[in-house]
Amino acid sequence: MGRSGGGGFFRTLVFGGLVVVGLFTVAGIVGFNLSPFRTEEKDHSPPPILQELRALSDFHGAQAQFEVVIDEEDDVKYLPGAIAGERVQFVAIGTVDAVVDLSSLSGDAIRYDREANSVTVLLPMPTIDKPVVDTEQSHVMNRDRGLFNRIGGLFSDNPTSERELYLAAESKMADAAAQTGLVAMAEQNTEELFEDMIRNLGVDSVDVRFYDGELPPECEGPDCS
């Protein structure tokens, strides 16, 4: 009797376990989580802190995107590359903007001719802004270091720093941007912006002109105000 009762208890225990396993299996299939040890993600991060508000004073008239490959080698004279030296190939993705500085515009930057119902707008020439390298897309494609360089790197805090590679990429992007039609495109886009904006005020004609230097040319004629 005792053996039979023990077997019945064992069968009941096994059956109950199978039922529980079956419930968890079904729950997993339909997307429920019945586990008493289930995890719940909680965000304890503090809210963002506003450090400063800045007024934008530049109009970004055009943007160019570049892919630059930096291939640099430090060659040690009389020693093979496997022993000493380093060569790195770095792919940089970034953008360069042509901007118009609107922060220094004076009152006579917009000159209205009442009789002709026309406006002349004097703006500084667009300039090439500092390149912005995308750190997520840019990466080291290949790096070969000699034995001595690897050993020396063990005693350096940052033996494979990429800072110089980013600076070299920025310089190449800036040079390349200067050879494109980026500035001309920025002029055209800025002209269209001011023409549309001012004509919506009821002006018949809008002439946008760009000047070099810090100050616009002197006003000439009686209708300069």
Question: What labels describe this entry?
Answer:
28% strand; 4 helices; 8 strands; three-stranded mixed β-sheet
Which radius of gyration do the C-alpha atoms yield? 34 Å
Low-confidence stretches: 154-160, 221-225
User: What is the percentage of strand-forming residues?
Assistant: 25-35%
Principal-axis shape equals: extended
Overall pLDDT confidence: 75
Largest sheet: 5 strands, antiparallel
Distance between the termini: 115 Å
Number of strands: 8
Number of helices: 4
Determine the fraction of residues in helical runs and give it as a percent range: 25-40%
What structural category arises from helix and sheet content?
alpha+beta
Order of helices and strands: HEEEEEEEHHHE
Q: Can you describe what's shown?
A:
- This protein has helices spanning 2-30, 147-153, 163-178, 182-199; strands spanning 58-74, 86-101, 110-113, 118-124, 127-128, 132-133, 139-145, 205-211.
- The chain has four helices and eight strands, in the order αβββββββαααβ.
- The chain has a domain at 58-211.
- Residues 154-160 and 221-225 have low confidence and may be disordered.
- The longest helix has 29 residues, at 2-30.
- The chain is 31% helix and 28% strand.
- A hairpin with a 4-residue loop joins β3 and β4 (118-124).
- The chain is of the alpha+beta class and 225 residues long.
- The strands form two sheets. Strands 1, 2, 5, 6 and 7 form a five-stranded antiparallel β-sheet that branches. A three-stranded mixed β-sheet has the order 3-4-8, covered by helices on one side.
